[in-house]
Amino acid sequence: MASAEPNSAATPQPAATPSPTASIADPGALGLAAFAMTTFVLSTFNTGLLSDTLETVVLPLALFYGGLAQLLAGMWEFRRANTFAATAFSSYGAFWLAFAYYISHVAPKLPPAHAYQATGLFLLAWAIFTTYMIIPAMRTSGAVLAVIALLALTFILLTIGAFAQSTGIDKVGGWAGYVTAAVAWYASCATVANSTWAKTVLPVWPLA
Fold first, then answer.
1. What tens digit of pLDDT does each residue of 73-132 get?
2. Which pLDDT score, from 0 to 100, does residue 135 have?
3. Among 192, 199, 194, which residue's Cα sits nearest to residue 31?
4. Of 88, 93, 77, residue with least CA distance to 34
5. Residue 186 near residue 144, CB atoms below 8 Å
6. pTM of the predicted model, to two decimals?
7. What is the pLDDT of residues 34-62, one digit of tens each?
8. CA-CA distance, 131 to 152, in Å (whole number)?
9. Rounded mean pLDDT of the chain?
């Protein structure tokens, strides 16, 4: 007697459901590039290579590239379920937005005798955040881990420089910022190149 079960070979199988994030490009390249450029420009003043009177040139970058673009990269990383990158890019995007507001609206109104303490506290909070982000970065890639570790060092140096009112330590922090920006630019370039060529053009040394 013929089986009452349908012939599975002849039964159309449901099409595989595409990943809801399959059409979202990797926002990491944008986030790293925005972070790198803004850090590079600010570090130029921290090193003392240009006069502090020109420092406001960093504000447009802090608002629109380091701030807004990086914040958007963080939101896209949330959509991709990348908790580390979402937290990092969103936070550092907010850092640049806060920095721009602090420099343009808050710092000019602080008591001159104690303004350095406010700046030091602001930097200290970010140094703490960046330092603990080293732990999850150990499961990303060597390039990203280097960026986070160097950024933590930069924040620590700038924090010490602010509280100690030491121009010399500020300059060392500025040079550390330059190195951080260079490594972040490399990581961004590698992300774009590897994605575009669909192969490893520049290594990032995965750690996971």
1. 999 999 999 999 999 999 999 999 999 999 999 999 999 999 999 999 999 999 999 999
2. 98
3. 192
4. 93
5. no
6. 0.89
7. 999 999 999 999 999 999 999 999 999 99
8. 5
9. 92
Which tokens go with 108? 């000019």
Q: What is the 3-state secondary structure (H, E, C) of the chain?
A: CCCCCCCCCCCCCCCCCCCCCCCCCCCHHHHHHHHHHHHHHHHHHHCCCCCHHHHHHHHHHHHHHHHHHHHHHHHHHHHCCCHHHHHHHHHHHHHHHHHHHHHHHHHHHCCCCCHHHHHHHHHHHHHHHHHHCHHHHCCCEHHHHHHHHHHHHHHHHHHHHHHHCCHHHHHHHHHHHHHHHHHHHHHHHHHHHHHHHCCCCCCCCECC
Q: Six-digit token pair at 115? A: 């303004």
Token duo for residue 51: 């006069």
